[in-house]
């Protein structure tokens, strides 16, 4: 009896293995045929007469809804088609405000099926949490041995991501952030005179119970309101209150830093930034700001040390960014789609290059030198509308044009064409 069960199990197991191997063989043959029939997708062909389809991925720095026609993908399409008469370019923008790399990788299957791109350009990672937050296990599995070498694995991964996308697409809140409250003392709950200021400004009703979440929301709103009005001293009060809820979130301190600096209010920049770093030593953007301060004051060694520290944190404390880039690479490589990895303005490209081996056929675009030169001749706010990322921010039309021209030059060079 036992022998019969073992035989049945072995027969079933062998059948499954055989089916998997057969599917792997079929997919590999299909991939070879696809590559042959899509020779026109080869980026080095000089006589390409079809439309080049470019898919752009990212967050608010790429999102069409954030900058509309001024977004760099929109300007990229216009720039390429106005200056080139032999090739037609179409750019599809799937940048999404507040998107993380996990969101982008989870949806790449549906994006590829929808747009059938020849080229995918990513500029992503700024919204990813650091390593104290859980990295979704599914991303780690995508960079496993199977993800790199198994067509069957990637086939089922694409099916699963498409199902997930169909399930999520009708949701009004694809990406949400849980509100949490830290170190809230009873005195903060009772000393809430600012609540009435918040109520008056927002025309909201006073809740029957002052909750932790309500106080967090009020402090966040008032801090940002006074920052927008350049009332630095008033903003400072609510920034401090907000940080009591989020000790590891120094984003508002960064905005407060520029509030004082832009108004030419005297304060010790180095002391201010070092104090914030003492509270959160893993906040990479503060190291960038401190490095910029040292650079402006000709402390080159100190500046480089801060920039290196910021880059180290981005690589080591946000491994999800590296994993996501690797995931996209293997998914796109499997479908013979060219992958361009672009770095944010003012940041070094070396960080992106460290994610891949030299044998990986990834194309890199740096926006460090072009913005460095532009900032020598232009005011910061000619290129950026804010300082949300420290040494850089969301781009103006001019800033996005710098990115678009930089990308266009790289894309055209891939075809051995001259605009």
Characterise this structure.
With 419 residues, this protein is mainly alpha-helical. It has four domains: 1-40; 58-129 and 133-170 and 318-366 and 387-414, 3-Layer(aba) Sandwich (Rossmann fold), CATH 3.40.50.1110; 183-246, no CATH class; 248-317, Tetratricopeptide repeat domain (Serine Threonine Protein Phosphatase 5, Tetratricopeptide repeat). It contains 20 helices and five strands. Strands 2-1-3-4-5 form a five-stranded parallel beta sheet, sandwiched between helices. The chain is globular, with a radius of gyration of 25 Å.
According to CATH, what is the class of the largest domain? Alpha Beta
Overall residue-averaged pLDDT value: 76
Number of strands: 5
- Give the ordered list of helices and strands: HEHHEHEHHHHHHHHHHHHEHEHHH
The structure class reads: mainly alpha
CATH H-level name of the largest domain... which superfamily? SGNH hydrolase
Low-confidence segments: 37-48, 131-144, 168-190
Q: Gyration radius, to the nearest Å?
A: 25 Å
| Structural domains: how many | 4
Instruction: Note the main sheet.
Output: 5 strands, parallel
Q: Beta-sheet strand percentage?
A: 5-15%
Amino- and carboxy-terminal Cα gap: 76 Å
User: Strand order across the biggest sheet?
Assistant: 2-1-3-4-5
The DSSP helix count reads 20
- The second-level CATH architecture of the largest domain is 3-Layer(aba) Sandwich
What is the global morphology? Answer: globular
């Amino acid at each position: 009896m036992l022998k019969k069960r073992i035989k049945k199990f072995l027969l079933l197991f062998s059948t499954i293995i055989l089916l998997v191997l057969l599917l792997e063989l079929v997919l590999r043959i299909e991939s070879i045929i696809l590559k042959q029939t899509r020779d026109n997708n080869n980026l080095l062909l000089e006589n390409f007469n079809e439309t080049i389809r470019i898919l752009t991925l990212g967050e608010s720095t790429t999102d069409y809804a954030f900058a509309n026609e001024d977004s760099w993908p929109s300007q990229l399409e216009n720039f390429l088609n106005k200056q080139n008469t032999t090739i037609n370019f179409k750019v599809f923008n799937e940048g999404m405000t507040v998107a993380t790399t996990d969101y982008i990788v989870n949806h790449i299957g549906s994006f590829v099926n929808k747009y059938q791109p020849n080229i995918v350009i990513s500029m992503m990672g700024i919204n990813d949490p650091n390593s104290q937050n859980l990295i979704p296990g599914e991303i780690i599995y995508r960079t496993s041995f199977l993800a790199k070498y198994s067509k069957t694995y990637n086939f089922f991964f694409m099916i699963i991501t498409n199902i997930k996308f169909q399930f999520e697409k009708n949701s009004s809140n694809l990406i949400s952030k849980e509100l949490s409250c830290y170190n809230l003392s009873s005195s903060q709950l009772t000393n809430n005179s600012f609540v009435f200021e918040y109520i008056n400004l927002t025309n909201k009703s006073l809740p029957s119970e002052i909750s932790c979440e309500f106080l967090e929301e009020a402090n966040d709103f008032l801090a940002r309101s006074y920052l927008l009005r350049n009332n630095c001293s008033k903003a400072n009060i609510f920034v401090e209150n907000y940080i009591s809820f989020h000790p590891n979130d120094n984003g508002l301190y960064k905005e407060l830093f520029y509030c004082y600096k832009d108004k030419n209010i005297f304060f010790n920049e180095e002391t201010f930034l070092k104090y914030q770093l003492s509270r959160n030593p893993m906040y990479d953007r503060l190291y960038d700001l401190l490095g910029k301060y040292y650079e402006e004051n000709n402390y080159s060694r100190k500046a480089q040390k801060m920039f290196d520290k910021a880059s180290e944190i981005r690589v080591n404390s946000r491994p999800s960014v590296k994993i996501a880039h690797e995931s996209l690479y293997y998914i796109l490589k499997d479908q013979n789609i060219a992958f361009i990895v672009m770095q944010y303005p003012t940041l070094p490209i070396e960080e992106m290059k460290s994610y891949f081996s030299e044998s990986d056929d990834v194309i890199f675009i740096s926006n460090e030198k072009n913005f460095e030169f532009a900032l020598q001749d232009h005011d910061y706010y000619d290129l950026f509308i804010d300082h949300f990322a420290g040494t850089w921010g969301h781009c103006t039309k001019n800033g996005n044009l710098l990115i678009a021209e930089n990308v266009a030059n790289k894309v055209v060079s891939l075809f051995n064409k001259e605009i």
